[in-house]
Design goal:
Layout lengths: L10 E4 L5 H12 L3 E6 L3 H13 L3 E6 L5 H15 L4 E4 L14 H29 L2 E6 L3 H4 L5 H21 L4 E8 L12 H5 L10 H12 L11 E4 L7
Parallel strand pairs: 1-2, 1-4, 2-3, 4-5, 5-6, 6-7
Length: 250
């Protein structure tokens, strides 16, 4: 596989790209010709594997550790990218965690960790790249939310609140940045087979998916790549694109 020229000359930061959906997004953007910054929190070997896979097909990539919920770490991450690559054209806010439990028994830490990483992380990364994108007068931001943020889910009040927050953040940022040539959209996956979902009761969920199968990280990556690329998605901003096999309609 040779990288295409679709995103040639562009630098893309993908948060949480060491595993799962983020990994597939990194590979897809790398295959489209972007230089990919593979961000991770605690899996350096896995991040390096993603970088090596991109190099293997002739693409450009490097990895960078940073906890997206820590302001200083995020600002340093963006500073390091700018020193090395001199630009950031695409930001994919993908890093996320779950700490499930019924509200009555939810520990405050589990509430706070999910809000900090899944929602505040999106704010911090977006703010950190904004100045550069505004100066460039172009940019693409894609935030990974979830259908759970649209319809709620028992046992996931923290996660649903964070993901619903990402939808509001996406639309507000899209309005703020539109005049600067920057689009901001969200992708809302349904049930995708990754480490995050491996312990869920899969049989009951499968019945609720009209297309009759779980999604793959590559299927989410396809939607993200579409939203990141010119000119196909240049007139789309503030939208939430569901990739869920028809699980949630209307
Ligand atoms: P995953 O397989 O558990 O991978 C999570 C990724 O996020 C890893 O690369 C992890 O890095 C990174 N990460 C976690 N905390 C981080 C932090 N504080 N700072 C930086 N990176 C961090 O999860 P996934 O299923 O691919 O999910 C990716 C995104 O899609 C999440 O936002 C998730 O909420 C969303 N989503 C997933 C599904 C699904 O069905 N899987 C559905 C809807 C939405 P390390 O490897 O270093 O820990």
């Amino acid at each position: 596989m040779n990288p295409s020229n679709l995103l040639a000359g562009q630098t893309a930061l993908v948060t949480g790209a060491s595993r799962g959906i983020g990994r597939a997004i990194a590979l897809s953007l790398g295959e489209a010709g972007a230089e990919v910054v593979v961000n991770y929190s605690s899996s350096p070997e896995k991040a390096e594997e993603v970088v090596n896979s991109i190099h293997a097909f002739g693409g450009k990539a490097y990895s960078m550790q940073s906890n997206v919920s820590e302001e200083q770490a995020v600002d340093e991450l963006v500073k390091s990218i700018l020193e090395r690559s001199h630009r950031i054209d695409i930001l994919i806010n993908n890093a996320g965690i779950t700490r499930d439990g019924l509200l009555m028994r939810m520990k405050t830490n589990d509430w706070q960790d999910v809000i900090n990483i899944n929602l505040s992380g999106v704010f911090l990364c977006t703010r950190a790249v904004a100045r550069t994108m505004i100066k460039q007068r172009s940019g693409r931001i894609v935030n990974i939310t979830s259908v759970v943020g649209l319809i709620g889910n028992a046992g996931q009040t923290n996660y649903a609140a964070a993901k619903a927050g990402v939808v509001g953040l996406t639309k507000s940022t899209a309005k703020e940045f539109a005049s600067r040539g920057i689009t901001v959209n969200a992708v809302a996956p349904g049930f995708i087979v990754t480490d995050m979902t491996k312990e869920l009761n899969q049989e009951s969920i499968l019945k609720a998916i009209p297309l009759g199968s779980f999604g793959t990280p590559e299927q989410v990556a396809g939607a993200v790549r579409f939203l990141a690329a010119d000119p196909a998605a240049s007139y789309i901003t503030g939208q939430v694109l569901q990739v869920d096999g028809g699980m949630v309609m209307g």
